[in-house]
Amino acid sequence: MFTPALIYIFILIVVIFSVTLVIAMYSTYAERKVAGFLQDRLGPNRAGPFGILQPVADGVKMFMKEEIIPDVSNKWLFILGPSVAMATCLMTSAVIPFGSGLTIGGTFYPMQVADVNIGILYVFGVVSIGVYGIMIGGWASNNKYSLLGALRASSQMISYEVAMGLSIIALVMMTGTLSVREIAAGQPGGHWNVLYQPLGFLIFIICAFAETNRAPFDLPECETELVGGYHTEYSSMKLGFYLFAEYINMFISAAVISTLYFGGYNMPFIGRFITDPNTLSLVGTAFLFGKIFFFIFFFMWVRWTIPRFRYDQLMNLGWKGLIPLAILNIFLTGLGMWFFGKVG
Amino acid sequence: MTLYLFYFLSFLAVLSALMVVVSKNPVHSVLYLIMTFFAIAGHYVLLNAQFLAAVHVIVYAGAIMVLFLYVIMMLNLNADTEPQKGKWLRVAATVAGGILMVVLVGALRSAADTLPVTAHDNQIGMIKNLGKVLYKDFMLPFEISSILFLVAMVGAVMLGKKEIK
Amino acid sequence: MTEFLFLLKHELILGLILVILLIMKIGSKSMTNSSLISLMNGLLFINFVAGWFLNREGVLFGGMFQNSSLLVFEKNVLSLGTWIICLQSSAWMKNHKHLPEFYMLMISTLMGMFFMLSSGNLLMFYIGLELSTIPLAAMCNFDLEKANSSEAAMKMIMSSAFSSGILLFGISLFYGMTGTFSLGGPSYNFDGSPLQVLAFIMIFSGFAFKLSVVPFHLWTADVYEGSPVAVTSYLSVISKGSMVFVFASVMYTAFRGIASVWYDGLVVLSLVTMIVGNLFALRQNNMKRFLAFSSIAQVGYILIGISGSSESGMASSIYFILIYIFSNLGAFGVISLISAHTGRESVDDYKGMYKTNPMLSWVLALSLFSLAGIPPTAGFFGKMFLLTAGAAKGNYFLITIAALNMIISLYYYLRIIRAVFMDKNENSLPSVQGDFGSRLALICCVVGILITGFAGGLYEYILSLSHGL
């Protein structure tokens, strides 16, 4: 039952979980530092050197705060909401290859929890379930602002899922596979998919912003209109779960973008300097994390630069802008494949 | 292992389907229905049809049921507004449903031994094979369903433009 | 390749019209309603005429799609009916804001019916069925400002979704039994084991919903009453007609093996349908509701014909549908004209109509006589052939009850005619002048009622097409 492979997978899961959580934790710190940098101020600098212990302090604060479950709310669903949000965002990383894999003692250990042959669809499935965390939470709060925030979030996520899916179709047409591992492996050196799919990438990243409810698409928690959005009634660690889920989602989106469009663990010219496959793999992992960190920074950069959309603008952009563009992209991709004779 | 998984998923599917009907609160019904869809997606995985499972989750659990929830939440339907049926109607429904079940079970029992056993290609659920079947053997229904979606969309948009006086 | 064009000709023409409509809707906003109506009337007429030429028989897509001269005839009948409906409802359509959408939905349902008729496969059949019902629900809601139009659409979509569910359950059982979707393929083995009978019952119930056979008829009257008249006539004539065509052919091909099983069911249902339809029609005071119940009763007679399970059963039901299209559209044409001009639809409003609208009164009377089956009109021959086909099985009890029902139905048809011709009414309908299109449509119906009755060769022609079933 407990074969080495299973134990390895177990260890891998634990490692990925802790890495995800730590990155999400320090994303909150990074967010405030980046905001400080962009707004020409210091940002957190009290807890520890350069404020490095700030996330820990925040975490302690979250845990110590009073836990309030509103009387009129639906208690089970009120608790289920943040749990679903957290669980789904942690599930996505299972199919992301964090490296090409290690060969130790003749056995190959892939740096990926599960190489599902429908990897991308798995990501989509989990993301689409993520909506429920917000909807259930917003409804169970029995508060009009929460409900409106939840409805906004769900309609926004559904609308942008369509464009996202369409932009991915063009990518899948090119790569001929749905497995994330094969897509990553299919971009050796500098042959990143973004070079062949610039439009698709643009659509994908805009949709990723909307899917993670990040600015400029953070309407579900638009303070000026909806108090706090779907988590108005939440306090303590349940609120923490929602906020945390957002940062984890950001990390996952960055990882997916890097893997699908920016070569994953591949880097140009690196094969000339390092020949040992194990070292190469570890260096590749480091590069992947470098790309991920860049995209996390990009998310924050955008947040503190671009103002929030109005709701009708959001819907217009999604349905009348991105979806036709994505369909055009599919058409162009098909045309290009036919022209270059890649159709089987 | 697979057999136990099958029993577990079937149990889950049937139980949550029952709860869909039994729950008084429409939101609970929808959530149970989502659970049913997950159980069915699990069945697809057991049949080695991961693509179907993923699409089932994305389309049904991820999109259609969200719209269900959306409507129910907007209308603020809950246990109080749910119309409750009279006692006799319930008795009649139980009797009718029970008789239907007896018929179903009887028909299935008699057929259990005579069902044709066909060779099952366990790779048919893989996306490449599925795509080939869909675009070769079932091309006409596939294309016509696109017309169906187009006109359904036309109808829905037209109704959405209704001006309420 | 050319084979493909010829075989799919009917569907391709409709597809072309659909594309034209889409482009027009997106491209030009200047098109007025009346020019669109004339254009569509022209296109539908071309569609009807073109349906008669360059037809081939054969199968396409590995048996998914089939075409035969019988199917071509059925499709042409439906095209004709659609054209007449479009002609006669122009008065209502002229002031509607979303006319291109209406045509789009209508054409797509017609296309769905064609695919359904030509399907050689249950999957194809199901998709054709959905294509012919889902847009219909949107069409029911076309009186946008009326609440009961929305109610009609809601009831329509609910009942059709429910019946589709039952039908799909039956189809899945069918697939489980035979291992194939195709209707009458080589590996086909339908011998009547209990599970197969169950599959049949489920599929049959799905059909019964769409045909509004009696235990499944409850949606009919409300939907007919709430919908705009054009849609009601489309529902009761074209939609029902196509279902009858498909029903008869599925019964005779796919379920031929268990004919002894379905014969009994069909007899019981036809009895109940006739009796309930007629008894309810007796006390209706809204013209549309009245015609709804009368059309339920007509389905009962059709079921008798189908129960004969022979070529004459098939031919007589097709012949009857052809007559029924003319008669019912004649009646609906008059109602639609009056409803569009005055908005009045109750039987009391029709009292003394002969004084103000003599021509319309005569058309209405002729149509109702034909529906009732009074000898000189075509309806008589239609019913006669149906009952003859049914009598082939020797079930004279059924035929006697059917004859009695025809007498009951005579009473309520004559009630309308009496109201129109003999009753006095100080607040009678104003004189209604139809435009060219609606007059042409009514002339077509009248000519149709007379020709189909007197042209003796027609039934033999249909019978000759039905050979080999």
Descriptive account of the structure:
The complex is a heterotrimer of chains A (344), B (165) and C (469). With 344 residues, chain A is an all-alpha fold. Chain A has helices at residues 4-38, 54-64, 75-91, 119-140, 144-175, 180-185, 193-196, 198-211, 223-226, 236-261, 270-273, 277-303, 311-339; strands spanning 102-104, 107-109. Chain A has 13 helices and two strands; from the N terminus they run H-H-H-E-E-H-H-H-H-H-H-H-H-H-H. The longest helix of chain A is centred in the N-terminal third of the chain and has 35 residues, at 4-38. Chain A is globular, with a radius of gyration of 21 Å. In chain A, 45% of the residues are buried. The longest helix of chain B has 26 residues, at 50-75. In chain B, helix 1 (2-22) packs antiparallel against helix 2. By secondary structure, chain C is mainly α. Chain C has a two-stranded antiparallel sheet with strand order 1-2. In chain C, a hairpin with a 4-residue loop joins strand 1 and strand 2 (65-67). In chain C, helix 2 packs antiparallel against helix 6 and helix 16 packs antiparallel against helix 18 (396-421). Chains in contact: A-B, B-C. At the B-C interface, helix 4 and helix 6 of B face helix 6, helix 7, helix 8 and helix 9 of C.
Average predicted local confidence, pLDDT of chain B: 83
SS-derived structural category of chain A: mainly alpha
CA radius of gyration of chain B? 21 Å
Q: Which overall shape of chain A is indicated by the principal axes computed on the Cα atoms?
A: globular
* Distance, first to last CA of chain B: 61 Å
Secondary-structure-based class of chain B equals: mainly alpha
Low-confidence stretches of chain A: none
- Give the largest interface pair and sizes: B-C, 33 and 42 residues
Average pLDDT score of chain A: 83
The unreliable regions of chain B are none
Overall morphology of chain B? globular
Proportion of β residues of chain B?
A: under 5%
* Helicity level of chain A: 55-70%
Q: Let me know the number of strands of chain A.
A: 2
Number of discrete helical segments of chain B: 6
